[in-house]
Amino acid sequence: MKVNALMYPILTGFVVMGLFSCATIPKGAEAVKPFDKDRYLGKWYEIARMDFKFEKNLNNTTAEYSLNDNGTIKVDNQGYNTKKEKWTQALGKAKFVGDENIAKLKVSFFGPFYSGYNVIAIDDDYKYALIAGESLKYLWILSREKMIPEEVTKEYLMIAEKIGYNTSELIWIEHNKVNEALTFQKWEEL
User: Fold this and answer.
1) Contact call for residues 163 and 28 (beta carbons, < 8 A)
2) What pTM was estimated for this model as a whole?
3) Lower CB count within 10 Å: N or C terminus of the chain?
4) 154 vs 2, 141, 149, 161, CA distance in Å?
5) Which residues, at least 6 apart from 124, have a Cβ–Cβ distance to it below 8 Å?
6) Is the Cα torsion angle 19, 23, 28, 32 positive or negative in sign?
7) Residues 6+ away with beta carbon under 8 Å from 31
8) Rounded mean pLDDT of the chain?
9) Where are the beta strands (DSSP E) in 133-181?
10) Are the C-beta atoms of 183 and 87 separated by less than 8 Å?
């Protein structure tokens, strides 16, 4: 049976896309191992981030992680849009790239499209976490509380800089509003 000449470029394209989509962590970064998924679940406050399109103009940002029935992790991100003066919400799902003992995940808010989510530092009590996206464009510092100790901040900045992050580009998040209305605008509408 002859294969249509157009099939080779199409199949090659899918293979190349598959290879690039597997790159979920920046070069030089290592996901936490061992990792305890159950201890990581719950609410986290965003302390700092590299700004990007879907979180632009957001303060008071939080992420809440819980288990879905199918074993994936439900991601509920919320933040206050300072320009539109309203709360926003993005619901997504995360799943482990490999072993659940390694904090290397991929997250999706838009159907079949995933991006890297990697816990690259976490304290023993699971109170503070440093998260690397799939490239040096994405970095978050998270805390179970609205503040983080200065020594933890310094340690996490040092880790990020060693990997190659320009930490002077971080945006430091304010937590000065309470979401009482519980009415949201989806982030994709921003």
Assistant:
1) yes
2) 0.83
3) N
4) 61, 11, 9, 11
5) none
6) negative
7) 25, 102, 103, 104, 118, 119, 120
8) 87
9) 139-143, 170-172
10) yes
Alpha helices (H) in the chain, listed in sequence order: 7-21, 37-40, 150-163
Residue 108 tokens read as 């999706």
Residue 109 token pair: 């808010």
Residue with more model confidence, 53 or 35: 35
Q: Put residue 89 in one of left, alpha, beta given phi > 0 → left and psi -120 to 50 → alpha.
A: beta
**Closest-CA residue to 134 (of 119, 120, 115, 108):** 115
At 7, the pLDDT band (50, 70, 90 cuts) reads very low
Beta bridge partners of 128: 143
Torsion 165-170-175-178 (CA) sign: negative
Cα–Cα distance between 121 and 140 in angstroms, integer?
11
Which DSSP category does 21 fall into?
H
Take residue 123 and report the two structure tokens written for it: 């304290």
The two beta strands, 113-122 and 185-186, are: unpaired
Whether 16 shows a pLDDT value over 90: the answer reads no
Strands 86-96 and 185-186: parallel
CA 130 – CA 4 distance, rounded (Å) = 48
